[in-house]
Amino acid sequence: MVDVTVIIGNVGLQLFILLLLAFSSYMAHSRKMKIHCSLMGAALFMQLLAIVFVMYPSFSAFSGMQISSQLLVELWVHHIAGILVMLLVIYINLAVKGSVHFLGEPYRLMRPVVLLWFLVLLGGLHIYISLYPALS
Predict the structure, then answer these.
(1) What does the H/E/C string look like for the chain?
(2) Which has more confidence, 109 or 102?
């Protein structure tokens, strides 16, 4: 079973990442692109650490639990969408830096990807509340 302290810490980290995304968006609208890129890089790094050290072990622990089929579908959608977000953020970053060729304009993907990231974060919070009702 997953330690509740780890869960609460991860929820706090996810909320901090959400604030980073909001502030990063503000910096992009203010045309402070270096700050925007740095904040997005920090958010990506923190998210990847959370995935490796908290979310993956948590997901592995669910394999022995009895959970509803609806929650299982929600878990899979959350994980697949989260992986998609991480891959797209990395791809956009590499395209903006000129490291990979991008089909079209990478900037057009930024808003949909940050919206999807936000939805994945909300979905993760819902999953935690569903699995651990004592947190709500």
Answers:
(1) CCCHHHHHHHHHHHHHHHHHHHHHHHHHHCCCHHHHHHHHHHHHHHHHHHHHHHHHHHHHHHCCCCCCHHHHHHHHHHHHHHHHHHHHHHHHHHHHCCCCCCCCCCHHHHHHHHHHHHHHHHHHHHHHHHHCHHHC
(2) 109
